[in-house]
Design a protein that fits this description.
Largest sheet: 2 strands, antiparallel
Shape: globular
Number of helices: 16
Strand order of the largest sheet: 1-2
């Protein structure tokens, strides 16, 4: 009886705290009425959330008992990863034929986040380094293409590898000063680097356009054939192939480019994991002191992780700039870095397949229109549930294991 009373008290206390925290955000939202800012009272949502938290807190012991009896999700072996990857690839190839224009745009964004998360997985999942400013490399790739296209007329295909290289050099510049740092100190330094990059883009208005960013960024072409309705000189894509012009052709091209980039990133990162460099990252992640005692060089491994991860972020940034057609510094802030890191954690650190699934899930939730007012609330709740019930991620990677034969 005492336990029940304590549980009820605890549930009521938790519910009250949650309602107090959500009241300024959801209960008193601000909006515009003409030119005036007004507060629209919406206490019902806060009360519903409080009741839901109270009920869930009361049911927590029973939910936990049911959860402990459920079969655990096995670690993703190499064979399982290959099978899941083939199934996901088949679905990705079919998707353009069943999705509308809005769905294709969402698919492009999801694939861009998959590339970013796979790149960050090299630093965080493989090498075990906590980075909170990964969007800075993303911004370098996007602005490299935007600036070269606006001022020098360079095409997408010319800027794509160059943007990756410039982002990799940026990763080298960042990686060298942080060789001696680890843990929270490394996270704080990378967080500062990400914020410095945003402020630099905002203040260099003559080059980057300042807070307004850069607009009218050119879309990629196919063998020099632009996918537009008409051009003053030459032929367009649909004229050359005798097709009827459709605006969906351009978004399908962006989807194919993003998909090829994901396949390339997935293949390279998985190959790196099996190379000696990948084994060094694993030793660095488990214990840096032991890594040094084995004669390995953690400094070079850290720099290599930063450079490789930044390279993939630069490629993803180029595709993002071409897809959106315009970019602003606000698109590469801390929220972006936090979201990419959350995808890696949700999918399972070191698990490429888990990260692909988590990236698609998070992108869908983040862009769902019916969840627009509560997306961050649901996103935070999802993270809390994952940390409590499955901290290893949706589909954790299978760690290599070597056992001596029993005698």
């Amino acid at each position: 009886m005492n336990l029940s009373i304590n549980l009820i008290k605890n549930a009521a206390f938790t519910s009250i705290i949650v309602m107090i925290l959500t009241l300024p955000i959801l209960g008193l939202p601000m909006g515009m009425s003409g030119i005036k800012i007004v507060v629209r009272e919406n206490y019902a949502v806060v009360i519903y959330i409080g009741i839901s938290v109270f009920i869930l807190r009361l049911l927590q012991p029973f939910i936990y008992k049911i959860y402990t009896k459920l079969p655990s999700i096995p670690e993703a072996s190499h064979g399982m990863q290959r099978t899941i990857f083939i199934l996901l690839l088949i679905f990705a190839l079919i998707y353009p034929f069943i999705a509308n224009r809005t769905g294709l745009g969402l698919g492009v964004l999801a694939l861009i986040y998959v590339t970013l998360a796979l790149g960050l997985n090299v630093i965080t999942g493989f090498a075990g380094l906590l980075v909170l400013g990964y969007a800075a490399f993303y911004a370098v790739g996007a602005y490299t293409y935007a600036i070269l296209n606006q001022f020098y007329g360079w095409s997408f295909w010319m800027c794509l590898p160059l943007a990756g290289v410039i982002a990799a050099l940026t990763g080298l510049v960042l990686g060298l000063p942080v060789l001696r740092l680890r843990g929270d100190y490394l996270a704080i330094v990378t967080l500062g680097f990400g914020e410095i990059m945003v402020k630099l883009l905002e203040n260099a208005d003559k080059i980057t356009g300042g807070p307004d960013g850069i607009t009218s960024i050119a879309k990629p072409s196919v063998f020099g054939l632009p996918m537009v309705r008409r051009v003053t000189e030459g032929q367009t894509f649909h004229e050359y192939f005798g097709l009827t012009y459709k605006s969906e052709h351009q978004i399908i091209l962006m989807y194919v480019i993003a998909l090829l980039l994901v396949i390339f990133t997935f293949y390279v990162t998985n190959r790196l994991q099996r190379l000696p460099l990948g084994r060094t990252w694993e030793a660095l992640r488990e214990d840096e002191i032991a890594c040094r005692s084995l004669g390995l060089n953690p400094a070079k491994s850290k720099v290599a992780a930063f450079v490789i991860a930044a390279f993939f972020a630069g490629l993803a940034g180029t595709v993002f700039a071409a897809h959106q057609g315009s970019i602003t510094p606000s698109s590469f802030g801390f929220i972006e870095s936090a979201m990419i890191l959350a995808i890696v954690v949700l999918g399972g650190m070191g698990s490429s397949i888990g990260i692909v699934i988590a990236a698609v899930l998070v992108t869908t939730l983040n862009n769902a229109q019916f969840l627009s007012d509560y997306r961050m609330l649901l996103f935070g709740a999802l993270l809390i549930i994952m940390m409590l019930m499955r901290p290893q991620g949706l589909l954790p990677a299978k760690r290599p294991l070597l056992e001596l034969p029993k005698t």
